[in-house]
Amino acid sequence: MAYNHNQSFFLLLLVTLLLTSSYAIQAEARRLLEVTIPELPKPELPHLPEIPTLPKPEFPEIPKPVFPEIPKPELPTFPKPELPTLPKLEIPVIPKPELPTLPKPEIPQVPKKP
């Protein structure tokens, strides 16, 4: 039985906390709307001295090396391998199955009511 009382106590505590926290947020928001913040002067940045630009370094031009021409190697030609021919397989002819003919069923006549 103590468990049921404990559960209801926590439910009551949760509802109370939710109600008080929402009221406090509304009150703080109202206070923020009423308060005026004084405008502060914008600070001026100190003047920095200009950085001198460095001259672009000039590198001496390097001549391109001349490579001797290398002869291309000749590859020997290989004969193409021939595949052996396989004998053609003969597929036996299977006769089509025929459905047996069934006699036509006789439907009895329904007697007519006079």
Structure commentary:
- The chain is mainly alpha-helical and 114 residues long.
- Helix content is 29%, strand content 0%.
- The two termini are 84 Å apart.
- The mean pLDDT is 82.
Strand content: under 5%
Main sheet: strands, sense, barrel: none
Instruction: State the end-to-end CA separation.
Output: 84 Å
Measured as a percent range, the helix fraction is: 25-40%
- Average of per-residue pLDDT values: 82
Low-confidence stretches: none
Q: Count of helices?
A: 1
Which oligomerization state do the chains in this entry correspond to? single chain
- Sequence of secondary-structure elements: H
DSSP, total strands = 0
Class by SSE composition: mainly alpha
Radius of gyration: 52 Å
Question: Which term fits the overall shape?
Answer: flat
Quick take:
Keywords: Signal. The chain contains one helix and no strands.
What key phrases describe this protein's structure?
29% helix; signal; 1 helix; mainly alpha
Helix and strand arrangement:
Elements: H1 2-34
